Amino acid sequence: MTDLSFEATSRFLETANGRLHYHEAGSGPALLLLHGSGPGVTGWANFAGNLPLFARHFRTIILDAPGYGRSDPIDGDPVAVARDAAVALMDGLRIDRAHVIGNSYGGIVGGHLAASHPDRVLRYITIGGIGFNITSTFPNEGLTRLVDFIENPTRENIVAWLESMVFDKSIITDELIEMRYKAALEPVTMTSSRKMYTRSALEFIAQSMSGPAVSQRIDYLGRIQAPTLITWGRDDKVSPLDGALLPMRVIPNAELHVFPRCGHWAMIECKERFETLALGFLLGEN
């Protein structure tokens, strides 16, 4: 039986901009998994549970974005930095084209990767992330709880944030809390989080959601040529469902699937349904 543990799949790649950490298992067409952001997040934390299925069909690669997990931090815009790291990883592993799945921040990164390097992305799946609030308020509960933790990193605040990520709070076990809390307090990880999640950062994002700045936030969507599956939790408190409407309409070849009774982590909270849907899409069955 193939060993799909953390250590057995752990790999490093030296690049011109520092060392990237990733996990790799399986064979076949390449599938790149891009994690979200937030306290203590890593590629493994987001996608370890999905690796066994995907590795049966694909050369599955789970990347730690720069400044997360065991990857070295890189200065610059977090989305552009992570996109360029994904390209560097593909180049270093001699992968010409790959399917891409991204959760939240990773979904945005994947969208920018597909838009700027259309020849490198076969099919693209986003789990929330790429949307734009149309009817819901900003910031919403999930982002507010996240900033609360970043500015005051207590165990109580990370529990409040984790519970805002899901519909079923029973998923938030003591083991998960301790794992994410310990990882979140690691200095490099905290620095990465503070680049994105402060009151001032959210104010800047809010300002960019109106007026001429809007076009700069969404123009990449129309350049995504890969067949695209937009997945969303109906009860997402981080990226509300109305955020799916604009990318669904603007991305040329996009379809939308909404999971009921599901929050921001569809690949975890609706694991079997998400995997079945994603596998069918990636294999060209949907």
From TrEMBL:
The AB hydrolase-1 domain, residue ranges: 29-269
Keywords: Hydrolase
Entry GO MF terms: monoacylglycerol lipase activity
A Pfam family this chain is assigned to: Abhydrolase_1
GO biological process: acylglycerol catabolic process
EC number in record: 3.7.1.14
Enzyme class: hydrolase
GO cellular component: membrane
Name used for this protein in its record: 2-hydroxy-6-oxonona-2,4-dienedioate hydrolase
Protein species of origin: Sphingobium vermicomposti
Lineage: Bacteria, Pseudomonadati, Pseudomonadota, Alphaproteobacteria, Sphingomonadales
